[in-house]
């Protein structure tokens, strides 16, 4: 049976922890690297539900994109998740901004799904590239369909033709520096999540469009990436069925 450290080594060979951003808590958030792995559950998030799934399936390693240890003073919910995992002897491992930034990681995979061409790195995580010229409103619909996101919203004129885009999965659409980069480098539209009002107003003033996608939907491809990287251990891997998008659209 592999040990936790054996699984971590495979992941970090693809997404080194050195690529993680300063604020991040990627890595082993709970557990022991010497534990023998009895089963692996893949998810985007650590929740009570995914912890319970581990117990029900016999898995003792939960691999997620998002860490449940975040910042110097993690909130009560996150602390309770770590406590619950330790109570049950589970190992929690997250591959977060290092997965966003690495070659073949989240931003590269999503760029490919969106049909971006001539893709290059902007700042480590974000990517830029060209797409088939498309009206903004139509592109927003296409992005929603590709990502399975029914809650997409956008900033800009419906008919504006978009040819050059910047992509930053997760909370990338709330990055003021990315808006300035787009303005200064002829990028028509930013695709990312969690844009806040001040960023939306700023982008509109500067003529930069935003397609605001869900944090969850823009990053759920993490599961297929992990599964692909860990093919050697496919026999002990399960994908979470409870880790679903918490947001629902008004129909």
Largest sheet: 6 strands, mixed
Mean pLDDT: 96
Calculate the terminal CA-CA distance, rounded to whole Å. 48 Å
Helix content: 25-40%
Q: Tell me, what's the shape?
A: elongated
Secondary structural class: alpha/beta
Amount of beta strand: 15-25%
Here the CATH topology of the largest domain equals Udp-n-acetylmuramoylalanyl-d-glutamate--2,6- Diaminopimelate Ligase, Chain: A, domain 1
Give the strand order, joined by hyphens, for the main sheet.
Answer: 5-6-8-9-10-7
Stretches where pLDDT is under 50 for at least 5 consecutive residues are: none
Please write the CATH class name of the largest domain. Answer: Alpha Beta
Structure commentary:
This protein has 10 helices and 11 strands. By secondary structure, the protein is α/β, with parallel strands linked by helices. The protein has 2 domains: 4-100, NIF3 (NGG1p interacting factor 3)-like (Udp-n-acetylmuramoylalanyl-d-glutamate--2,6- Diaminopimelate Ligase, Chain: A, domain 1); 103-215, Udp-n-acetylmuramoylalanyl-d-glutamate--2,6- Diaminopimelate Ligase, Chain: A, domain 1 (3-Layer(aba) Sandwich), CATH 3.40.1390. A 6-stranded mixed β-sheet has the order 5-6-8-9-10-7, with helices on both faces. The radius of gyration is 19 Å and the shape is elongated.
């Amino acid at each position: 049976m592999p040990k936790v450290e054996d699984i971590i080594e495979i992941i970090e060979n693809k997404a080194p922890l050195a690529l993680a951003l300063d604020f991040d808590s990627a890595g082993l958030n709970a557990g022991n690297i010497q534990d023998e792995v009895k089963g692996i559950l893949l998810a985007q998030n650590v929740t009570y539900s995914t912890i319970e799934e581990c117990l029900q399936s016999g898995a003792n390693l939960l691999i997620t994109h998002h860490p449940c240890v975040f910042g110097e003073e993690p909130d009560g919910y996150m602390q309770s998740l770590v406590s619950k995992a330790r109570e049950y002897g589970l190992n929690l491992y997250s591959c977060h901004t290092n997965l966003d930034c690495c070659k073949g990681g989240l931003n590269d995979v999503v760029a490919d799904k969106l049909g971006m061409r001539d893709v290059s790195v902007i700042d480590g995580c974000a990517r830029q590239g060209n797409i088939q010229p498309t009206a903004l409103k139509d592109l927003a619909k296409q992005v929603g369909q590709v990502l399975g996101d029914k809650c997409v919203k956008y900033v800009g004129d419906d008919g504006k033709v978009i040819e050059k885009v910047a992509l930053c999965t997760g909370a990338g659409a709330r990055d003021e520096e990315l808006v300035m980069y787009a303005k200064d480098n002829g990028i028509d539209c930013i695709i990312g999540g969690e844009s806040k009002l001040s960023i939306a107003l700023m982008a509109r003033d500067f003529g930069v469009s935003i397609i605001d996608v869900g944090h969850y939907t823009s990053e759920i491809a993490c599961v297929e990436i992990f599964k692909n990287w860990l093919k050697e251990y496919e026999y002990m891997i399960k994908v979470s069925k409870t880790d679903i998008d918490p947001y629902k659209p008004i129909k």
